[in-house]
Amino acid sequence: MLAWITGANGLIGSHLVRLAPRAAPQWTVAGVTRAHFDLTDFGAIRRAFAVQRPQLVIHCAAITSTPFCEANPAVARKVNVDAVALLAELAADVPLVFFSSDLVFDGRKGDYVESDEAHPLNRYAAAKLDAEGIVLANPRHTVIRTSLNGGGSPTGDRGFNGELRRAWREGRGVRLFTDEYRSPIPAAVTAQAVWALVAKNQPGLYHLAGSERLSRWQIGQLVAARCPELNPRLEPGSLRNYQGPPRAPDTTLNCARIQKLLPFPLPGLAQWLAEHPEEPF
Questions:
Q1: Pick from 264, 129, 141, 118: which is nearest to 191 by CA?
Q2: CA–CA separation, 251 and 64 (whole Å)
Q3: How confident is the model at residue 168 (pLDDT cuts 50, 70, 90)?
Q4: How is the chain split into domains, by residue range?
Q5: Whole-prediction pTM
Q6: Phi then psi for 249, rounded to 5 degrees?
Q7: What is the phi/psi pair of residue 58, to 5°?
Q8: CA 4/CA 50 separation, integer angstroms
Q9: What pLDDT shows up at residue 202?
């Protein structure tokens, strides 16, 4: 059986491809990247799907940069909504897993469950919410809302840890909020959970994130401790003094629903880092 994994050179996609032989040996995985086709080339997508006829689609590819989405709304929407709609149409008779974001929430509450009302604060999050509705219209399909993912990637610069490392490598300090909270998760754990969920064949809407509520500042400290050779510089900041576009203060996710289907407990980031000292991060 053939499984398409889009965004295979990205953070989560690369981990899904790498883990597949052990976690999902029944699937032959095709990692789809820009070298195969551009997500805005709908004709190429249709032709490739018709030829290969995948029996599973895990859609990781997206434009995730919030500033880019704000500055280029038409391009961002074509990738983050229209391409999702096309894949959902093509995969109408097979399972499709789509990655959404904790940023569909406005962050006023925290510990969000799947039934909580979404209220996105920017174009990126609004597009994710629109795409969720398209995907969930098919009872065979699944939406996974995740939080900050980190870990090693083919390009070495994906995920929140990659962004921090790049800044420190360039000699730049980083200011991180002490009062903005997320539930970060290693991409390796995300991939493991997704393959377990695929095996259960229980489609629907799920939250998938780490079990710790950590501030941006705390997350930065964990990453800094991992790379002392870069002389990491961190400065604490507060949302109270922030003057930019709206930010969600607490988008932590309650993952009890998916946890019931997983054969392992979702870890907190600090715990996972302590237990995997040799893993790239």
A1: 264
A2: 16
A3: very high
A4: 2-155+184-212+247-269
A5: 0.95
A6: -75, -30
A7: -115, 110
A8: 13
A9: 96
